[in-house]
Amino acid sequence: MEIRHSTNPADAKHYDTARLRQQYLIESLFQADEIKMVYAHDDRLIIGGAHPVNAALTVEAADVLKTDYFLERREVGFIHIGGGEAVIEADGERFTLGKLDTLYVGKGTRNLTLSSANPSDPAKIYFTSALAHATYPTRKVSVQEANTLNLGALESSNERTIHQIIHENGVQSCQLMLGVTLFKPGSVWNTMPAHLHDRRMEAYLYFDMNADARVFHFMGEPNETRHIVVANEQAVISPSWSIHSGAGTSSYAFVWAMAGENYTFKDMDVVAMDALK
């Protein structure tokens, strides 16, 4: 498991492109027959990807967790982002996930295995895990069952549908929040006007992009913005002090996940456009 330590805005504004990418960009999450995980000290969120091809993969506690099993003190949300059906077993209970189906698994589940229903069309499973103080029931939910918001307009290039899945109005959790944003044709801007939420961090996974497409992800304090160029199936860690916004060269989707103190989607401070620099 890779470790990413927290940063502060006074330091981050001096980072060059290479350091920005090293600190905040996760470039390679989906490798055949591997589970890749990054432990972000920002609210201790774990960001992971699995691409089971030839065999089932077991989610295990790395040494850094100092626990007997992965979910001893954690909860996790899995979302299937591509390929054939994914199969997840949680303490012997079997769940089959189609594209954009989500599985929440609560604290105390000991055994987690991930596999593909059809090895010739292997699944790609993205997951995020947060600390948990209580146990909530394991639950599978489709994107059609999510709490759905239609926002933006074609005129501002940000007409989009936000599916809130693990959320105060959806699947219940201790602190993990997760959903997916899909764009209407011709719209490429996400999360603009930008906002902050100082009480929780966020991570974005960009996916469903062509090989030559890129998202220019904007981060930093509102008066000290920076950008990271992101390719398909790459993730960005967004500290609580940073904006998190972006524009794509063509169509894309992204999974957003949050962890931290507040469990309210509307707990955000909108940044006025004239404050961005």
Set down the secondary structure blueprint:
Blueprint: E1 2-4, H1 9-12, H2 17-24, E2 25-26, E3 35-40, E4 45-50, E5 57-58, E6 74-82, E7 86-90, E8 93-97, E9 102-105, E10 112-116, E11 124-131, E12 139-141, E13 147-151, E14 160-166, E15 177-183, E16 189-190, E17 195-196, E18 200-207, E19 215-221, E20 224-230, E21 234-238, E22 245-248, E23 253-260, E24 269-270
Give a structural overview.
By secondary structure, the chain is mainly β. It has one domain: Jelly Rolls, CATH 2.60.120.10. The chain has a seven-stranded mixed β-sheet, with no helix packed on it. A seven-stranded antiparallel β-sheet has the order 2-21-18-23-15-14-13. A hairpin with a 4-residue loop joins strand 3 and strand 4. The longest helix is centred in the N-terminal third of the chain and has 8 residues. The chain starts with a strand and ends in a 7-residue tail after the last strand.
Please give a quick description of this structure.
The protein has 277 residues and is mainly beta. It has two helices and 24 strands.
Count of discrete structural domains: 1
Q: What's the β-strand tally? A: 24
Structure classification = mainly beta
The CATH architecture? Sandwich
How far apart lie the N and C ends? Answer: 35 Å
CATH topology assignment: Jelly Rolls
Cα-based radius of gyration, to the nearest Å: 18 Å
The tally of helices reads 2
pLDDT averaged residue by residue: 95
Uncertain ranges: none
Tell me, briefly, the overall form: globular
What key attributes describe this structure?
24 strands; mainly beta; 4% helix; 277 residues; 2 helices; seven-stranded antiparallel beta sheet; Jelly Rolls
